[in-house]
Amino acid sequence: MTYINKYQIHIFEDFANVNTSVSFFLSLGWGILLMFVIHIFCRSDAEIPIVELILSFTLALLLFSYATTTSSDVLSYYYGLVVGFLCYIFLFGHPYKR
Question: Alpha-carbon torsion 74, 75, 76, 81, what sign?
Answer without folding.
Answer: positive
